[in-house]
Each structure stands twice: as C-alpha cells, then as structure tokens.
What we know:
2 strands; 5 helices; two-stranded antiparallel sheet
Amino acid sequence: xxxxxxxxxxxxxxxxxxxxxxxxxxxxxxxxxxxxxxxxxxxxxxxxxxxxxxxxxxxxxxxxxxxxxxxxxxxxxxxxxxxxxxxxxxxxxxxxxxxxxxxxxxxxxxxxxxxxxxxxxxxxxxxxxxxxxxxxxxxxxxxxxxxxxxxxxx
Length: 154
C-alpha cells in the first residue's frame, strides 16, 4: 500500500500540474510535450504544430535532404564493400572507407538537426501567444457612467 502511494502521488501531481498549465485563462496554449513528439516523428512537425510554418518548411527540407544524402552514402558504401569483398582491391576499400566516413558524418548532422528541431519546438510551444494582447488599451467605461480607461498589459 505504501509503495502504491509513492507512485500515485507524483503521478497525480504531474497530471494536476499539466492540467493547470494547459487550462489557464491566458488563452490557447500549445503543449511542449506534443511539440517535441511531433518534431521527432515528422520533420518540422513541431514547428507546424506551433504554427511556425516557414521554420517548419525549412527544417522539413533540411531533414529530408540530409536523410536522402545519408541513404545515398549508405548505398555507395555497401556497393564499395561488395566490390572490395569480391576483388580485394585496395582502391575499393578506400572507396568504402570514404563513403562509410561520409555516412557517419551525415548521421551526426541528422541527429543534430533532429535535436535542434525538437528544442526549437519545445521553446516555440512555451512561447506560443507570447506578446499577443500586450500593449496599451484605451477605451470608454461602459458600466453606467461616462469615463475613459487606460490599461497597460505586459
């Protein structure tokens, strides 16, 4: 019973905290969790989720290009390895080594773009609606009297 209480208490706290953040009176919000999930599963998905369409298109193109280049280098490396195994020629081994190294470097770039995209989507979700509704409002008082009100929102 005590163990169940230890597990249930943090789970309920996290659930209540999530609900309080997502259901605040500040207007619509975007979930950072879903932004990161979308960004890691679909190229540029987190940016599209946060309604940053231009940035989403750039990240989508970057990830698609790097993935295509990585797959191309993989095919060339496997072909060079097959040639080396059949001929034993040092030129084929050097060709394989070159394509293997390029593929490894491109995989690091792929991972970097993925992490950058997820971090950007996380920040975008937190900053969603930031700056909207900010500024100075001037208007008439409508409750049974004549007057002018000024409200600063920041």
